[in-house]
Amino acid sequence: DAGVTQSPTHLIKTRGQQVTLRCSPKSGHDTVSWYQQALGQEPQFIFQYYEEEERQRGNFPDRFSGHQFPNYSSELNVNALLLGDSALYLCASSFGDREGEKLFFGSGTQLSVL
Amino acid sequence: AQSVTQLGSHVSVSEGALVLLRCNYSSSVPPYLFWYVQYPNQGLQLLLKYTTGATLVKGINGFEAEFKKSETSFHLTKPSAHMSDAAEYFCAVSGEAGGSYIPTFGRGTSLIVHP
What we know:
The complex is a heterodimer of chains A (about 110) and B (about 120). With about 110 residues, chain A is mainly β. Chain A is built from no helices and 11 strands. Chain B has about 120 residues and is mainly β. In chain B, strand 7 and strand 8 form a beta hairpin. The relative contact order of chain B is 0.34. The interface between A and B is medium-sized, with 25 and 24 residues.
């Protein structure tokens, strides 16, 4: 049973560029959440996708956008990259948006913005 | 609003000693509480979760946590530390907010295990 997979594992971009990160949820899961984790910090919630729609959003600017496909996989897009966007981006999947549902995390994409 | 406070950014123990990682939460609704572990260069892995019912929750790798409503705490313990337990530990709380249950994470506690 494949867990949550993310690609790429590492990425280096320059300021102003755009980036797309990809996530495939755990088999049987239909909800994908994205988190940003700066070095030495806790994960910060970016947004959650359920039934191909953005269901909840954290305190992130519109430069951060996403998409969920019919097969439940998801993409995170970041435009006009800033140095402060350098972080580990984590994808987490779950089944539905139910109370107390536990998250399964991928290993993340390490984004470095130069 | 919900929040989590983890007391101590670093906890250092000797191998074989008791592990105690502290977590206090704030929630306006009955909370769901979680402990996650993160090893270097990896994502987070669920150790255990509390929903309702028994206040002592047993998780993986010998960890357990006790929910104390009167103290708004959910401390994580393990009787005997192993070198492989060295990692970052995050406490998280979730509760209904706007129809969704997005967990809020604490700032993490780094567990250091000495031989």
